[in-house]
Amino acid sequence: MTTKVALITGANKGIGFETARRLGALGITVLVGARDERRGADAVRRLREEAVDARAVTLDVTDPETVFRTAAWIDEEYGHLDVLVNNAGTATISRRRALPSETSLDDMRAVYEVNVFGLVTVTNAMLPLLRRAPAARIVNVSSEVGSIASQTAATSPLSTMPASAQYPSSKAAVNMLTAQYAKELAGTRIKVNAANPGFTATDFNDHRGIRTAEQGAEASVHLATLPDDGPSGILWGHLWTTEGDGDGGYGVLPW
Ligand SMILES: NC(=O)c1ccc[n+]([C@@H]2O[C@H](COP(=O)([O-])OP(=O)(O)OC[C@H]3O[C@@H](n4cnc5c(N)ncnc54)[C@H](OP(=O)(O)O)[C@@H]3O)[C@@H](O)[C@H]2O)c1
What we know:
The protein has helices spanning 14-25, 37-49, 64-77, 105-131, 148-152, 166-185, 213-216, 218-224; strands at 5-8, 29-34, 54-58, 83-86, 137-141, 191-196, 235-240, 247-253. The chain is α/β, with parallel strands linked by helices. The chain is globular, with a radius of gyration of 17 Å.
């Protein structure tokens, strides 16, 4: 049996790194996508210390040249790709929280470049390789904040959070892209799903999250390793509730 190969974007730290670690522990070769060569090499060194078969790829999702170069390299080295985790993401480039009425369009465009256009660039570049795998899985790391149903339901904890334009709408776009890719690829061996890590303590939120990075990686790992009779075209992951400690376990979230 040939070893499975997974590419994880933004895997040098946070949820992406933990996803690489956990997929690697399952015996999958992990290609650690990092936009900074040194940070990627450092992550690979830490993964190899845990006996993970990890290799670094320098990939900035907003730079198509690095994406196409990565696809060509994977083709040469492996000839196919079993798992793509579109994990790279950002909430704001300016680090400024803003109401929709105060949103900087430059900041919004920069967030969309990474979260939305970057995801499409990487997915389309990797699709020929994914089509050659026996049972490929695409995981788009999204968020419950991109769920319009959760944002607008009075019973959701999200309904009381401050309004914001760029990040939630970018993840709503990720959700729709997931549904549309799943629609296009229905009838193929490729499953496409969106993952909700839950509010996870990483650099992303200055470690204010309530879940560990390992817990945050759970949804991506689950969707990356779905069996052949598993779903395609869903948003799955941590369920945040208004009950008790807010931990509702895992399951399908509304779009
Ligand atoms: N943390 C949460 O509570 C939470 C909740 C829901 C969803 N998410 C999603 O989970 C994913 C991972 O977030 P995280 O919490 O692990 O954040 P993180 O620790 O800040 O990691 C983000 C990763 O994305 C990379 N990245 C950013 N821009 C990139 C680009 N242009 N090209 C390639 N890589 C890029 C970063 O690289 P550098 O190190 O070079 O900056 C880093 O590796 C994101 O999609 C985020 O939206 C997070």
